[in-house]
Amino acid sequence: MSQNLSHSQLTDLADRFGTPLYVYHAEKIKEQYEALQKAFKECNSRFFYACKALTNINILKYIASLGANLDCVSINEVKLGLKAGFTPDRILFTPNCVDFAEIEAGKDLGVTLNIDNISILEQFGNKFGGSYPICIRFNPHIMGGGHYKMSTGHIDSKFGISVHQMRHIERIVKTTSLHVKGIHMHTGSDIKDINVFLAGLEVMFEIAEHFPDITFVDLGSGFKVAYHEDDVQTDIEDLGEKVTAAFKDYTSQKGKNLEVWFEPGKFLVSEAGYFIVKCNVIKQTTATVFVGVNSGFNHLIRPMMYEAYHRIENISHPFGNPRIYTVVGNICETDTFAWDRKLSEVREGDYLVFYNAGAYGFEMSSNFNSRLKPAEVLVKDGEALLIRKRDEFDDLLKNQVEVL
User: Fold this and answer.
1) C-alpha torsion 5→350→270→144, nearest 10
2) Considering 269, 300, 327, which residue would you say is the last residue of a domain?
3) Same domain for 356 and 263
4) Does residue 220 share a domain with residue 360?
5) Which of 32, 200, 221, 231 is the most exposed place for a label (fewest CB within 10 A)?
6) Catalytic position from the list 43, 72, 279, 332
7) Which residues fall within 8 angstroms of residue 179, CB to CB, at 6 or more apart?
8) Is pLDDT of 253 > 90?
């Protein structure tokens, strides 16, 4: 097991690189990937890192070096993946609500296309027929995920083609001679109950009967990681055993040895990430003691967008008397990281660290309020490597065109 970065290591990094600061621990990413490999070692499996979680080119290169594949949701993620060293056969491209030209661009780059729209499916079949194999993303109408905004398989979701549209899909496949090589589903993020995956797999096995030439079934991901001490996470070992058994049973019945694909994103990088901020002010009101830090939802939006919990510690004064604080940012509207959180006594100038900050942290950051984006550091083999420079003022103007 890899060791977490210590308080002293994190404070040293904050002193060296400044704050706010994102830090990623390479060995933790490797540990998570190896845990997946171990859990599914008896299964014909492939893992595609869902890079929407974190796309720094160095993170992509490192994950490529581990042997993982890549899941992309935009053509630019595909291009980043190719630049990072992933070959086209190791890239799955699953866009949503994009122009047909973006689908064609993916085809031209040679990656596996995952189509989730009847209209796009028909356009692709009419233009390319069976000359380029594709995957179809289905909506299984299964509610999964820890938050409605992160649930993608329910009946009102924009993602996937409804399983109830099978007859329409079959008509398109037959009339255009489409070559369907895989089928896909993804029900959401932060899935605690592995029965969500198993229920989805039953649906996928039924769908597989309609496509005799498929070679894989993609179950998406949504593996939950623990955000606080008593949090429940996806039982990867149990899931691996039950998925393996289900595929072996399918093989014995149908005589087909299908691959199972997964697309872990948060599972690989979340726990590897730390976000360090500095306390600017302590502000006491009639009801609340606020810790005001030098960041905001422009750098870490998850608490405000998803009510996400991130464990926070005072790494400058870890053994101080515990007090109750509300941790807030420096943005010009309600900007709360944590309400009524027990922390070691915080003093102005202290560093606080947010744990589990590797996924959808920097990736969803912005320059709102004309604030500068933070730096990123990768700790690998004990060495701290700057992998993104902190924004400077000129970066705010870089793509603006002054005409007045």
Assistant:
1) 140
2) 269
3) no
4) no
5) 231
6) 332
7) 130, 131, 132, 133, 134, 213
8) yes
